[in-house]
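Late entry, evening session. Most of the bench is empty. Finally got around to the prediction I had been postponing all week. Sequence below, unchanged from the version circulated by S.P.
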Amino acid sequence: MSQPSRNYYRDFYIDRLRSVMTALVILHHTAITYGGPGGWFWREVDPSAAPSSLLLTLFCATNQAYFMGFFFLLAGYFTPRSLERKGYTSFLKDRFCRLGLPLLFFIFVLGPLTAAIVTAYQGDGFWPTIRFLWQHQRIINGPLWFAQALLIFSIGYCLWRAAFGAPIANAERKPSPVPANRWWLLAALGTALGAITIRQFIPTGQNVFGLQLGYFAGYIFLFAIGIAAWRHDWLRQLQWKNARPWIVNLIIAWPLMPIGIAVARAINGGPGKANFSGGLSRTAILYALWEPFVAWGLICLWLLVFRSRMNQPSTFWDWLNRRAYAVYIIHPPVLVGIALLFHHWMAPALVKFGVTGTLTIAACWLISDPIVRLPGIRGIV
């Protein structure tokens, strides 16, 4: 009885991590609203050299280095178990239901709705925007790009598993030690090299079918690591001794980005002049290397802290976890609506970031509560 109990309790902290990462996604988009870099439906403050903008830029850059990759790692962790329990047909049907339907709902409803809220506020009308998007077949996948990518990854995993992997019927978990640190280093360098290569052709910030492929070297690798972590039981075996070198690397590497930004701005004559998004500039190479060295340490910290401190039953956390996916789906129009309500409030950007982000997180979870109770919907989200 001890082994099933241990596996059951181990899942508590993973569900809570997904809820916390969902809240962090909302804060990330709130930061863009008030001066951070990135694409979003409504931007009240443009990125600049102002202290608040620099802090929000660093916040966004740090998030971007790891948090969506962390989502892919956690998704990958549960993928083999789900496939082996359901079989190929039921697994893919479930993936299309839970990922494809929310993606389509966002493309056809929530995306146009959020864009129209902004244009209506700006005086350009609500319905003209809806008609324009429909007539010109403009697709807005928003944060549901994650569902789109995860659906592609799931199909890819099924194809790989059918061709090269263990048969579904007799697949087994094979616990093995967490890889040595030299493999972590090779993985970081390989991921950075992959990112640099992709960004020669598709720089960060450029979408291809709604996906920013410039970040996908890390996403693909972490999804694969999640699969391997399930097969070899690495998350349970991960210890501070494994993570310590990467936490040290995190402490060393993290300040290099603001230093690099400051140096690049000084050399290139101000904000926006340095190229971090692609090519073979020093800043682009620095950014590609910085991401995995920051990501490995932060992911380890989240996993170890939550596993040790957030791994007990909790009714409140169960409530949050059950609604996290719905929160992720619906948060764009809620965040934009709240930000527009506070548009004329003359407060510092960081204050508005804190207030808007907090209210949006609370509102999204409250709005999601009745949504996940609806028949038909509760089986999807």
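Two things to note before I forget:
The chain has a mean pLDDT of 92.
The first helix runs from residue 2 to 33.
Will write this up properly tomorrow.
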